[in-house]
Amino acid sequence: MKGNKNIVFFFFFLVLFVFVFVLSAAVSRGQRTTAAVNVGIVADVGTTFSDMSLFCINMSLSDFYSSRPGFQTRLVVNVGDSKDDVIGAAAAALELIKNKEVKAILGPWTSMQAHFVIEIGRKSQVPIISFSATSPLLTSIRSPYFFRATYEDSSQVEAISEIIKLFGWREVVPVYVDNTFGEGIIPHLTDALQGINVRIPYRTVISPNATDDEIFRELYKMMTLPTRVFIVHMYPSLASRVFVKAKEIGLMKKGYTWILTTGVADVLSTLNRKVVRMMRGVLGVRTYIPRSKELERFRARWSKRFPITDLNIYGLWAYDAATALAMAVEEAGTPNSGFSKTTDARQNTSELKALGVSRYGPKLLQTLSRVQFKGLSGDFRFINGHLQPSVFEIVNVIGSGGKRVGFWTKEGGIVKKLEQKPGSTSSFLGPITWPGDTTFVPKGWEIPTNGRKLQIVVPKRTGFTELVKVKRDPITNAPEVTGFCIDFFEAVTRAMPYDVSYDLIPFETPDGKSAGDYNEMVRQVYLKKFDAAVGDTTILANRSLYVDFTLPYTKSGVGLIVPMKDRVKRSSVIFLTPLTWKLWVTSLSSFFAIGFVVWVLEHRVNPDFRGPANYQASTILWFTFSTMVFAPRERVFTFWSRVVVITWYFVVLVLTQSYTASLASVLMSQQLHPTETSMKNLLGKGEPVAYPQASFVYGKLKESGFSESNLKPFGSAEECEGLLRAGPRNGGVSAAFMEIPYMRLFLGQYCHKYKMVEQPFNVDGFGFVFPIGSPLVADVSRAILKVAESSKAAELERAWFKNKDESCPDPVTDPDPHPSESFRRLGLDSFWFLFAGAAFVCLVALSKFFVCFLMENQEILKQKDSRLRNLWNRFHKRDENSYIGGVEKCQCSSTLTWSRKPAENRRQIFPEIV
Questions:
Q1: Which of 152, 175, 733, 881 reaches 20 to 30 Å from 809, CA-CA?
Q2: What's the Cα-to-Cα distance from 627 to each of 122, 382, 637, 772, rounded to whole Å?
Q3: Which pLDDT does position 13 carry in this prediction?
């Protein structure tokens, strides 16, 4: 038994020995395969953000290696205190590389510190991984050993410009800290704003060590200037002071807009809650952190370990940067060499020149460039040494933090939700509370009530005061400016999206006279002695080289005004004018012809047409001419005579009515014709012309070829009318050139004497004048369109362009209010058919008469001697056999009836007249 027990104990100790041996071998093997790699951290030890970053780095390495026990490398962290100083950061980096021979450096915190540390890293080939230096100026160093484990500030300018474009603001003012961090974003922000036609009128630069008085001074300057949209890019500590002072002086009230960059928006949760409440209504662009289970678990762990310190995006980037470095070192392998010296240590050189070059750096550089994983801050991957964002959050500061109201994506711009399709018509952002607790979008530009009003110059005219009229109050001597141009400008200012406060200043000398022409007034605006010019100022190309014009608010063009002359001659023989001489001759001839035909047909049977020769001739004339006005006393009995007379009555009726109408037209109407028809004719004749005094028209006329001696100025409509009425022979002019608004006023008073015949010059109408680059130009132009499309413009025109002569129509809608009225003289071509018809009836009647006469007197035709004489005597002899002799007159009436004994009663009815 005892022997068996010894064998059991022997085997037990043998197994225990083998187990201990294997375990110790495994431990020793693990210790042999795990290599320590020194890395450095340059931080402002003792500050909140740096301490948070150090905690996150330690947690990152702890989490990384605990989840990867088989890795052969372990990062050993060496901290260098930069002491919140640029030189301190450089000294800490030199110390870590020279004495600790670190293979990489995490940090430093600020962009200015990073600028020097990057140079040291490039010199020594030690990768510098910054998780908080965001200035775009660091990119200009072009060091391949610089990795930015954060987003560059320039990546957010597109999101900011999209916000400004969305709300239609035309001017913004950057408010930034005066150092590398603040200045780095400005060139990129300026380019982005220029791309959407937004102007930066000025910049507010505040020193990082500014006193309260200096901050007050800059804020008061911002208050006195009109722009109300501010973009804040500075350190959180300085931003807190700025917003506290802004709240005190009233820059956080209704009408103001503040936009925060990520430098402040990303750390809102870490700011003093009292400060955040003063920032109520501010918009901000914040880094988007996608939600994940790993992030939620980390936040929970952080809250337990550090309940006092709030975690922000920089801590997450520090965590991911440490993870990326650990992965890159593991892939690069254990460093088997240190630093190579570039200079002799015995030489008296600076520490930077004496710094060695890491032989491990190039390999680590390659592995860092290939690192890619999903970290707590999102997808982590270096592209050209930088992280590339694709999404930003848009937040609205309400309460103690920022409320998300939308997103900006690189593909779709501003969207309310990430799953929203690009170009969706739904609302782009959620409800926003603006400064002053208002939900109405600020206009972005206002005339400050506590600042200087706009100084607007107006011309002082002596004529055409319906456009601009300046007079002085007899008691206060204050200028009173009225007129169409002034009322239109007031209507425009009321239509603008913000209030405009201004003073109207007459352009005059101290003695109250006009200070010069319109070019000089425009020049004063160019010199910025005035903020704008309002009045009858024409938009011209040469003027637009020095100032900006709004859209025209009146009709354009220059009109040529000439006198009108009546060409109808009023004389004592005007009654002959309606008919042509051919028609007069034809009509008179027809009267004699008709009388002769009736006499031929009637004289053998009608005693009224018989008698002595002079009696018969007068009867013929009396009968024919009396048909024009009344029925003749002489009666006609034969059938064909009556046909001829009826036909002639119709011709006379048409002819007399036509003559009456034509004569009335001649007596009542006018033939108004312009004395000149074009500028070309005036130039060809060398005629003198008039132009408005102190107007650009003078230069246009000289360019067109008019001599200076033929150009006469006028200052009012009355002066112009006097020159035109006098004419060139009496020291006047033949025509006048004036712009359309002046022409409307002139012809509204003298439309019966003058008219516009041509528009020789095409120019724009009147416009308001502003200095080049003035933000008011675009807004005023839009307001002009609003007023022009409304009924207000028509009301102003009716009020100020009301014709002094109410019978004058509008010369623009009816440019020829009294057109030339003429008539057509009545000619033979208008009545030839009637005369031809009457002639045909006469020929038929005469033919029938002579045929019957010859047939009745055949015995005379058979005579050999005196046939014509006998026929003539028979022609004059009474026709005893005519049926007319059978017509008798009733005793009870004047009616003629047929008698059975015509031969017996004929002598009683028609006694023979010898």
A1: 733
A2: 127, 118, 16, 85
A3: 39
